[in-house]
Amino acid sequence: MLFHLHEYKDYFPPLNVLRYVSFRLVMGTMTALAMSWLMYPGFIRRLQKAQIGQVVRGDGPESHLQKSGTPTMGGSLILLSVVVSTMLWTDLTNHYVWMVLTITVAFGFVGFVDDYRKIKEKGSRGLPGRWKLFWQFLVAGIVVTSLFYDGVIGYDTKVYLPFVAADRFYLEIPVWLYIIFALFVIVGTSNATNLTDGLDGLAIAPVTVAAGTFLVLCYAAGTVITIPAMVDGQQVYAAFDIAQYLKIPHVDGLAELAVFAGAIIGAGIGFLWFNTYPASVFMGDVGSLALGGALGTLAVLSKNELLSTIIFGVFLLEAVSVITQTTSYKLRKKRVFKMAPIHHHFELKGISEPKIIVRFWIISILLSLVALASLKLR
């Protein structure tokens, strides 16, 4: 929205700064952070007054019983901060912006329905899993399919390998197979993030770190810098394609998503202020499904589907632990872990909740550094 004010730079020259993604991503981050910090205290009080509290699983760790009644659905304010900040600071003619916003808001609505049912029924079941997946796959399917059939965006079906130069080797698969692949990346990331959201601050910090990683990746993949130079006494301008230099796929217009990623960082930090142990508010499915869907979409649109398995390492670990536990119990009637997801396993082994949380944060940071290192190891 504010991006278009740069067209009036002839009347007010400072407005020219709005042309630059680097400026707008900083402003987007600060806007989302300010909204979170300013609005959460009053928002938490309203949740408490309305008795919108967490319903704790009866079969969970005993230490979690004291968390019953803690205000939940705090992710709805994360969602609001991200959407408002993105609408303010991005180029709203950019198709990628609308794609990621569509999935984020739609997945958030699915999570909202799930949270609402849990609160209304005073149980932990919520929306049946099959319906969650149905709506997630439907929305993501429409968005991903539009990449190839809307007649506006040119997109390829190449899948690039981490640590391998994009111009040296890649896998090109049929459109239908790529769409299926992209759907599993988006929906899988959303639900893996949801599984991770089981301890105070456990999910939001890795989400914020992952968003920071994609901020760099999206900016690098979509930015061409114009560099002035002198040739034979005359000033000329040379185009420097960051993606070409780093040997990663170039995607026109993708740099705008760096502003969106910045909004997630700002909203995430603001939420963590109140969600850190002991939490004053929980994210709920409205936040975890939306943020996970947003990150999965960033992975697809930036052509980092396989690299995202490193960036989302913590989420992947949580999801695999649940799959392993479920499969083992169905086939052998034996459990691999004391409890799944795996963060509960560590709790039941006697490790304190804050220690588990911080260690998972450290792992998330290290994995993102590995992913960023891949930019120079190609």
What does this structure look like?
The chain is mostly helical and 378 residues long. It has one domain. The chain is built from 13 helices and 4 strands. It has helices at 21-49, 75-89, 95-121, 129-149, 175-196, 204-222, 242-246, 256-275, 285-301, 308-311, 313-332, 342-348, 353-373, and strands at 158-160, 170-172, 224-231, 234-241. A two-stranded antiparallel sheet has the order 1-2. It has a two-stranded antiparallel sheet with strand order 3-4. A hairpin with a 2-residue loop joins strand 3 and strand 4. Helix 5 crosses helix 11.
Overall mean confidence score, pLDDT:
90
Q: In one word, what is the shape? A: globular
What series of H and E elements makes up the topology? HHHHEEHHEEHHHHHHH
What gap, in angstroms, lies between the N and C termini? 37 Å
Strand arrangement, major sheet: 1-2
Q: Given the helix and strand composition, which structural class is it?
A: mainly alpha
Helix content, binned percent? 55-70%
Total individual domains: 1
Q: Major sheet, described briefly? A: 2 strands, antiparallel
Tally of DSSP β-strands: 4
Number of helices: 13
Query: What fraction strand?
Result: 5-15%
Rg result = 21 Å
Can you summarize this structure?
The chain has helices at residues 21-49, 75-89, 95-121, 129-149, 175-196, 204-222, 242-246, 256-275, 285-301, 308-311, 313-332, 342-348, 353-373, and strands at residues 158-160, 170-172, 224-231, 234-241. It has 378 residues and is mainly alpha-helical.
Name the features:
378 residues, mainly alpha, two-stranded antiparallel ribbon, 13 helices, 4 strands, 60% helix, 6% strand, globular
